Amino acid sequence: MKTIKLNHIVLLIEMTVVSIGVMSCTKKLDVKPSQTLIVPKTAADLQGAIDADIFRGIYPSLGELGAGDFYVEDTRFATLAVDDQRIYTWAKQLYGPGRIIGDWDDNFTKLRSITAILQALEDLKVGESSPEFNNIRGSALFYRAYVNFHIAQIFAKPYNPSTASTDPGIPLLQSLDVTKPPGRASLAKTYESITNDLNNALNLLPETSIYKTRPTKLAVYAMFSRIYMAMGDYTNALQFADKALKIYSTLIDYKALNTADSYPFKQLNAETIFYSEVTSSNSIAAGAIFYNTTSCAIEKGLYDSYTTDDIRKTAFFARQPTGLNTWKGSYSGSFILFGGLATDELYLNRAECYARAGNVPSAMEDLNTLLSKRFGAGFVPYTATDQKNAMLTILKERRKELLFRGLRWIDLRRLNKEPDYAVTLTRIVNGTIYTLPPNDPRYVYPIPPDEIAISGIEQNER
């Protein structure tokens, strides 16, 4: 039985009217909708809602903060809020009372808006014969899968098929009935819901779109490849990367860039398949860390891994008067971190999957196709003597290519299960060494304590 009427929906669609202050008290799983002034009645109404800028920032940033690709100077660290210092040093206890965690709160607000859009389609009794409404429904399903997957990379364990049926996943918000807030589904059910949403979206969306901010079949294929990489299902990851690249495979030739520009890459550039941004708000440390170019720098070993003939070294990084090397290579065209889907990721997915399957020639062909667009005219294609050599080369280039997109955290979680590729992360603050070993429980962030207190869902082990 429906517990919310159509004229209660728009507040949830227009999330900008939902204040953070209110949400910090009521939290996302049981917040009640308010009366609204405008009722969505047409495809244009709902398309406007699904196109809203609020859906751009749907990629969490806590993983990027923990992935170890940057450091902050000791003087800057001292100015961070205590909770932000804890996040930076991988502390077991992270949040103080009342702390708003944007990666949780903001994304569940977005999920409520997505649910409201799907509910509006139901209430309007739209048939399956309408292409416009099909596209809106497909887009909403894609967004729900996209948001749920990335929440799971922060607040749930890495996927393990042996334990997924008992490992806690995330709450799956699929109803606006505030009297029945969802508990945590199992990790298996979480991924089942994500892949089901994408499969359903696939039948409703156009193959491509002139608007790279809108979901498409191409974006679904690319997203499936990302998901299956995280799950360690490299057969399916290869299949979907291949499907996507058969539709669209364009790469930017970095030789044509003006690397002296403050931001060499354009927003919605030729490699972008689906555009979204890594979220940053005053509720997390990202704004305090990433956007400060005078005291936040690229990890030295990572920076030194780029050779002088690698154009990425000057396209991605700016040398500051302080001597620090800072980030400028976002595909957002600004300081905002890109969190979307792009062709370079697909080439690297397919290359790794080929290598894992023992197809070293195809793996190196994909890698060299990408790198030929990243190096100068004298680029000499890479070779690999065997499968392991190919894997190590591909994974090294993957880290160097996909910086600050939230992907390194996902990669660490999956690769740490394999001793050959596991790494221990290290940060030094005022002479104190902090580490994050492979498979540590701290690869799962705690759910905000206020959410636990109100909803009663299970907290993550730290």
Description of the molecule:
The chain is mainly alpha-helical and 462 residues long. The chain has one domain (6-254, 339-455): Serine Threonine Protein Phosphatase 5, Tetratricopeptide repeat. Helices cover 43% and strands 7% of the residues. It has 19 helices and 10 strands. The chain has a two-stranded antiparallel ribbon. A two-stranded antiparallel sheet has the order 2-3. Strand 9 and strand 10 form a beta hairpin. Helix 8 packs antiparallel against helix 9 (187-202). The protein is globular, with a radius of gyration of 22 Å. The model is unreliable at 1-26 and 31-37 (pLDDT under 50).
Measured by DSSP, the beta-strand proportion falls in 5-15%
Order of secondary-structure elements: HHHHEHHHHEEHHHEHEHHEEEHHHHEEH
Mean pLDDT: 89
Total number of β-strand segments?
10
Q: How is the main sheet built?
A: 2 strands, antiparallel
CATH secondary-structure class = Mainly Alpha
- Main-sheet strand order equals 1-5
What is the number of helices?
19
Secondary structure: helix percent: 40-55%
Q: Provide the CATH architecture.
A: Alpha Horseshoe
**Number of structural units classed as domains:** 1
Query: Which geometry do the CA atoms define?
Result: globular
Summarize the structure.
With 462 residues, the protein is mainly alpha-helical.
Key terms for this structure?
two-stranded antiparallel ribbon, 43% helix, Serine Threonine Protein Phosphatase 5, Tetratricopeptide repeat, mainly alpha, disordered N terminus, 462 residues
